[in-house]
């Protein structure tokens, strides 16, 4: 078992550096090779599943926003695609879940699978995403245990790996300063990515099930919504470049450089 665990951890270190690029590749492969299905053979149920999936994705984004807004500085991608950390975050949402960002990503991925409602998405994509994050988390835990020793062991004994402890959560969030501009600055790309995937799934469903001609109006509307999101994202990028959303903290002053933030 120790050998298996060590191999999973090695895989996790590798996935840590390439996880952001793996998800779009898998998504495109599934879009090309699989077929959507109506739940219970009903288009109405399919609309309900789409709504449920989108709600789950919003919940995942909420987890990410709460974590990003409360943490002082969470560096993306670690350093040179390797896990690194200077200080352990134990405040805000991190006082209730050790991996709120990965929890958010898992919920976003699950919501996308619910929207697609395809057999292969459930049996291939969802277990694959869960396995990837499990390996990455084990790799991070090994690093943090070596880096912080007893402090991290104590933290693990009090805080769940994923599912947040509800008791005291509101007070923890109130006690931790929240930066909405930081959320916009850091999460705009993430939101743009999963909205692109979600709208892509909705277009894919209509094309595969009915054909472009039969659902042209809906497809055009979805494309226009997506373009509107891109315009908003472009505006945010311009504001970031002009320094209007606050400058980043200097490198090394953040609380956690091990990249608890993931953009898949």
Plain-language structure description:
- With 264 residues, this protein is an all-alpha fold.
- It has a domain at 2-178: Four Helix Bundle (Hemerythrin (Met), subunit A) (Up-down Bundle), CATH 1.20.120.
- The chain has helices at residues 2-33, 43-70, 100-116, 119-148, 150-158, 169-175, 180-210, 216-241.
- Helix 3 runs antiparallel to helix 4.
- The longest helix is centred in the first third of the chain and has 32 residues, at 2-33.
What's the gist of this structure?
With 264 residues, the protein is mostly helical. The chain is 68% helix and 0% strand.
The secondary-structure element order is HHHHHHHH
Under the CATH scheme, which architecture of the domain at 2-178 would be assigned? Answer: Up-down Bundle
Distance between the termini: 29 Å
What's the pLDDT, averaged over the residues? 85
Strand content: under 5%
Q: Over all CA atoms, what is the radius of gyration?
A: 20 Å
* Structural class label: mainly alpha
Q: Output the number of helix runs.
A: 8
Task: Please give the largest β-sheet.
Answer: none
Low-confidence runs (pLDDT<50, min 5 residues)? 247-264
Number of extended strands? 0
CATH-defined fold name of the domain at 2-178: Four Helix Bundle (Hemerythrin (Met), subunit A)
Give the helix proportion (percent range): 55-70%
The shape is globular
């Amino acid at each position: 078992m120790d050998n298996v665990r060590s191999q999973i951890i090695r895989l996790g270190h590798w996935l840590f550096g390439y996880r952001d690029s793996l998800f779009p590749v898998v998504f495109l492969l599934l879009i090309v090779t699989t077929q959507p299905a109506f739940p219970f053979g009903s288009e109405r149920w399919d609309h309900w599943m789409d709504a449920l999936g989108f709600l789950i994705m919003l919940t995942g984004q909420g987890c990410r926003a709460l974590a990003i807004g409360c943490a002082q500085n969470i560096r993306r991608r670690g350093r040179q695609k390797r896990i690194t950390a200077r200080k352990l975050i134990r405040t805000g949402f991190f006082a209730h879940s050790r991996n709120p960002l990965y929890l958010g990503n898992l919920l976003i991925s699950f919501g996308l699978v619910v929207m697609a409602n395809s057999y292969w998405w459930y049996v291939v994509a969802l277990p694959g995403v869960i396995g990837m994050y499990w390996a990455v988390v084990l790799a991070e835990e090994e690093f943090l245990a070596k880096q912080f020793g007893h402090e991290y062991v104590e933290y693990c004994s009090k805080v769940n790996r994923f599912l947040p402890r509800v008791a005291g959560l509101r007070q923890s969030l109130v006690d931790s300063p929240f930066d909405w501009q930081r959320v916009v600055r850091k999460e705009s790309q993430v939101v743009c990515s999963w909205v692109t995937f979600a709208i892509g799934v909705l277009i894919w469903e209509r094309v595969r099930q009915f054909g472009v001609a039969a659902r042209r109006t809906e497809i055009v509307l979805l494309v226009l919504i997506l373009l509107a999101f891109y315009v908003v994202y472009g505006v945010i990028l311009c504001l970031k470049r002009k320094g209007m959303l606050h400058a980043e903290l200097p490198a090394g002053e953040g609380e956690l450089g091990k990249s608890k933030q993931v953009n898949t």
